[in-house]
Design goal:
alpha/beta, seven-stranded parallel beta sheet
């Protein structure tokens, strides 16, 4: 069976203004010292695709406008709301004060396997992704409500942070819509 790829105008994409007004999933993404601007851009693009509420950029994480973020975000950095925090712990405290359940995405003692995570549609959530080498800071892991881990079965026990974000955001999206 032949399948014709859809043309751009057939995708019924919404404008940046329409995105800003659209209903979002109750999820905030936190980037804790993510160094690669391409990874940051990828997280913006995924957050746009699944209507994430906001991205909090923390520590050494670069912020828009930035040509390297734009290379992978492709304009999503203009649609998805974002804020910068010098310290990730300050971002976590602000989220907790606002009633968010905060998860570090990290391999840790007593972490919850992603497929076991149960979400309630009436609650608000935040997920923290860490530095490409060092992961989420231990002090941030300590303040999170829990850790979520993606099960892995190969010889490597880590995924690229933007791939991890894609998997987690998609899972939260399908459980929250």
């Amino acid at each position: 069976m032949k399948r014709r790829k859809l043309k751009l105008e057939e995708l019924h994409r919404i404008s940046v203004d329409e995105f800003r007004e659209a209903r979002k999933i109750p999820l905030i993404v936190v980037l804790d010292n993510v160094r690669s601007q391409h990874n940051i851009g990828s997280v913006f693009r995924t957050s746009d695709a699944f209507r994430v509420e906001e991205i909090l950029l923390c520590g050494i994480t670069a912020t828009p406008p930035n040509v390297d973020i734009h290379k992978t975000a492709l304009g999503a950095e203009d649609a998805v709301r974002w804020r910068y925090f010098e310290e990730t712990l300050d971002a976590v405290q602000a989220l907790k004060s606002a009633g968010y359940t905060v998860f570090s995405i990290e391999q840790a003692e007593n972490s919850i396997s992603l497929e076991s995570v149960v979400l309630e549609k009436e609650k608000k959530y935040a997920v923290i992704f860490g530095h490409e080498v060092h992961g989420v800071q231990q002090s941030v892991v300590n303040t999170a409500d829990a850790c979520i881990e993606i099960p892995q079965y190969g010889t490597k026990h880590s995924l690229n942070v933007s791939v991890t974000a894609g998997i987690i955001i998609w899972d939260f999206f399908r459980k929250l819509v």
